[in-house]
Amino acid sequence: MKTKLKHILLVAGIFTIASTVTSFAQERRAGIKGGLNVSNLYVDDVDDENARYGFNVGLFGEIISTEAFGLQAELLYSTKGSKFVTDGIIDQETKFNLNYIDVPVLAVFKLGESVDLQLGAYGSYLLGANISTDGDFGSGSDDLDKDNFKSFDYGLVGGIGFNFGPAQVGARYNYGLAKIADSETARDIIGDSKNSFAQLYLAFNLNHHP
Fold first, then answer.
1. What total number of domains does the chain contain?
2. Which residues belong to the signal peptide in this entry (predicted)?
3. Is residue 210 part of a domain?
4. CATH number at residue 121
């Protein structure tokens, strides 16, 4: 029952954001955006851990808009994960890949026309997971069952954006609050890891009128 309710809420949220983006009044920002993800899982008991470079792309739109404040929702496809190395009797490099739909909701504090400060939260739905390995016993790739990982993730978001006419260039940090492993198999690989990722993005306001 809870799973069905979560899916209903997710679909309703996606529909609301998509519908709102296409029907906003001209004074409200709405448009498209995309950029770079730099993510990590901070797994214990590994010798070397490196970020995974991915991307985010999607839609954004303001629900509330004034000269000094806005409430903005987004719908993004986002790739996350990590890469880590284990040295010892067996040397191995493991790349951990996660693909999500992210729905950030942000309070936007507008410092004049040029700078925005963004604070809020995000909810995510897991679309797929993959682990690839390269080590002493060769290379491989496993499509893990989604049941090994929690379907929903959530966390906090903070960032800054710089406006140049209809374009905005910005940076954010997303701090996950939920442990993403949902089975012993997944916990054996990533322990109690949570998502952690920085973003650089370029957004275009399609409702901008000089």
1. 1
2. 1-25
3. no
4. 2.40.160.20
Determine, yes or no, domain membership for 13.
yes
Q: Which residue has the higher pLDDT, 206 or 133?
A: 206
User: Residue 27: inside a domain, yes or no?
Assistant: yes
Domain extent for 182:
2-205
Q: Does any domain span residue 120?
A: yes
Mean pLDDT on 193-199? 94
> Which residue has better confidence, 152 or 147?
152
**Residue-level pLDDT at 23:** 47
The rounded Cα 136 to chain-centroid distance in angstroms is 33
* 0.70 surpassed by pTM: yes
